Each structure stands twice: as C-alpha cells, then as structure tokens.
Amino acid sequence: MNLKDHFRSLGTAMPVDVEAPIPSSHAAPIGLEGISASVVTIAADEKTGKGFMVDGEGRIATSGRLVESASRIKVTTFSGDIFLGKVIRWDANRDLALVQIPARTSNYLTLGDAGTVDVGEEVYVLGRSSSGSGKVTKGLIAALRRIEGTALIQLDVPVDPGNLGGPVVTAQGAVVGMSTLKENWGDDMTGFAVSVNEVKAFIYAQ
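and the corresponding structure tokens:
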C-alpha cells in the first residue's frame, strides 16, 4: 500500500463524510476570515501555540507536546473570549491532543482528506508565528511520508513554535493536516503536518 492509499484508508475508517463540500466561507484562504475564526491560541503553562475547533461542542485539535503535562491550559478564541481548557484525549506518538472548552460555537473547520493532496500542491499554515509576523505561511507540499508509523505531510517551509498545532489548509480551504514539531522529524528548514486523516482517526477513536 502506498502512502496516498494509506491516507485514504485512514479517512474511510472515520464516521465523517470526507467528500462533504467545504462551506463557502472556507473557500478562500487568502481572505482567511471564515477559517481564522476557528483557530484558537493555547497557552499551556510556559508554552504557547495554536489549535482549531473541530465541532460545535467546543472540542479543539492541537499538538500533544504543547499541552503535555500542563497544569493550566488557557484557550483564547478568535473573538477574544478566554476559557480554561481540559485535555480529554492525548497521543504522544502522533503529537496529537484533543482539548475541551465549555463553549458552543458555529466556527469550526471541516476536516478534509489528505489522500486527495499531492506533492507540489500549495498549502497554507495558519496561526501567527512566535515572532508575531503574519497569520499565515504559504508553502508547498514537499513530500508525503510516514515516520515512526505516523502519516505526515512534509512542507517546504518551517513550522514555527507559535503556529504549532494550527491547521494546514489547501487553496480550497480544506484542512489536510495539523502543524507539528517533533525531534528527528526534520530540520530548521523543514515543516511537518500530521495528516488530517490521522487527526480524524484520533478524534473519533472508540
């Protein structure tokens, strides 16, 4: 099985319609209004990064290393509301976590299918960098890889600690991955995103 088939097999295992149309408000990443409203800032003790709403019940996908062992998780939404978050699921191997806040929202992202993307495709990494420069980084998919058993999308741009845990979207606004930073997965000029199909497998695991 090649990696794109692996992406597709992960996607079909999830109780979601990966062919569902992306809402029109998410169609243009250049504007980012609809997409950015679903991105949150997470302060976990001394660490700061991003996450994104995955449903209307206040569940947020983010980086496992960001919230690992944190005694306090503060979540700030796009509108400026601040909530105390709680980790309800965590996977160190895939660098994934699911955080719950006590809020309902209509601002959440439709999770796409990483099996539909290919090397050379343009993508956008959302979330302001730790230097405060810019809310989005534009790059290309450099490779589709599996490292330590995790399906990853390798980018030609680095992931900054400030946008760790943020969504990676296509030009059509579909989420195809989550920004990750993990030792031995790359160098200073390489960025990685955990495949959105891995994210869905994690979120909807029984």
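(Above: one complete record from the training split.) The first helix runs from residue 3 to 12.
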